[in-house]
Amino acid sequence: MLLYYLDLAGVAVFAVSGVLAARDRDLDLLGVLVVAAITAIGGGTLRDLLLDRHPIFWITDTWYLVVILAATIATVLYLRLRQPPGISLQVADAFGLGLFALSGAQYAEAANSSPLIVVLMGTMTGVTGGVIRDVITAKVPLILRQEIYATAAIAGVLAYLGMKQLGVPESYAFPGGILVVVGIRLVAIRWGLHLPVVHKP
Amino acid sequence: MLLYYLDLAGVAVFAVSGVLAARDRDLDLLGVLVVAAITAIGGGTLRDLLLDRHPIFWITDTWYLVVILAATIATVLYLRLRQPPGISLQVADAFGLGLFALSGAQYAEAANSSPLIVVLMGTMTGVTGGVIRDVITAKVPLILRQEIYATAAIAGVLAYLGMKQLGVPESYAFPGGILVVVGIRLVAIRWGLHLPVVHKP
Amino acid sequence: MLLYYLDLAGVAVFAVSGVLAARDRDLDLLGVLVVAAITAIGGGTLRDLLLDRHPIFWITDTWYLVVILAATIATVLYLRLRQPPGISLQVADAFGLGLFALSGAQYAEAANSSPLIVVLMGTMTGVTGGVIRDVITAKVPLILRQEIYATAAIAGVLAYLGMKQLGVPESYAFPGGILVVVGIRLVAIRWGLHLPVVHKP
Question: Complex ipTM, two decimals?
């Protein structure tokens, strides 16, 4: 049940990030809605396809789409009133990344995957929404920016697995993992932190 | 049965649009064929994956691939004779958009989805082929241009659902919905129409 | 069993190609690993999704991910010592293309697909990893370069089918097909060969 509400929250913040990415492109309202919807359901859809979970989470439950619709309209209205700071997109993306990374990890666990694969599955679920958003709005994917990005998702899933190993109940370890992802991303965005990069000599 | 022929038609026009998009890229004939094939089967493949319909429509029925092959060769030969006007790509795309939007909607209905989700599923099925084509040929996706695009798909599916609600038999409402999509797109392309856009102040 | 080891080999060389593509982007080590992993499993994942083969090959078998991890670390360390020639990426990609094209073809055969569809399935499986890599690292996809690319995959699958038709046992025809793909690509890269292109007059 908690997982369901967290999925709804992830869908909402990714929809907001989709609107923020789309507004530079002069789309009409329904075009913005389509970009927001694809961004919002992208990660979870990949998760369900890979784990053969059918029906896909949003196909029989209308609430996801209602939440996307509401988040999109609210964001568009807000944008008419004031201009949010430039990092709003990255902040909304950070929450979506955290929520979907942990939900992807948890579903992979349910499929009896090994820890390594739980980490990969969580990371892929988390980054997919943002990558699709950035590709269809023709932006340089956030995942390619220097600040800690995929690393935050990996750290969050590892923290979740570690806490469970130490006996922390799942109902704490799960939101704990999300907070690790969001916290690392926000700190990295705020202070422009990045790990040593692998670059051309 | 009608749905089958309309799927074949959608595959054909998206293949044509794939060739038109690929020709700016100086690919060899087989490269063009691969781009055309991926464009043509992209939308329907996503539809079948999301709805867990297996085997995927083109995997056991060779006719789809024969149609793609024929449409590709015919288009390549035609291009050697004369230069079609610049909007040919968008016109072929309009027909593919309409055919796949309605077929996606109809299959979603068969999966007992709510009307909102039928609209989203139709829109995603319709726009996917074009988005993949534009991404792999490194063009700005048509969906990001200002003219009414995703909106046309949404309007066509809504028209289809509305007609059925009013008692119009499905065999009329289905082609009616396709005509709405294609009509809106062609009018929007011809006169450069667009809805009010959501833009940066 | 042989197919399993060849899949592992394909995963390894695509991971190397992912690292080589990612290094121009100044990612941190874990970012590079995520790009390498997505590149390495992309083609096979699409193959399994399209053919409804579950669980997806890497979800229950940790070896794939261990191989990706090892190939990524080895490549990163090697890059600190010396600068490989500019075509290394294309060479690694050629081996991945060949291995996955033939494995995609063979699984499509097992699903009773017709020869035309076996060729398309092989080609799509082969090119997908590279296309995803090039899209997420924001490069012009190799498939759009002039040298023989998709054509090499098609030729390799046709050679495989032809050899089997002539009575060559599968255990020879399969590596034979891979060699055809890799050979054509390496020759095309080395001497800049390309077929006549379809271009704007």
Answer: 0.86
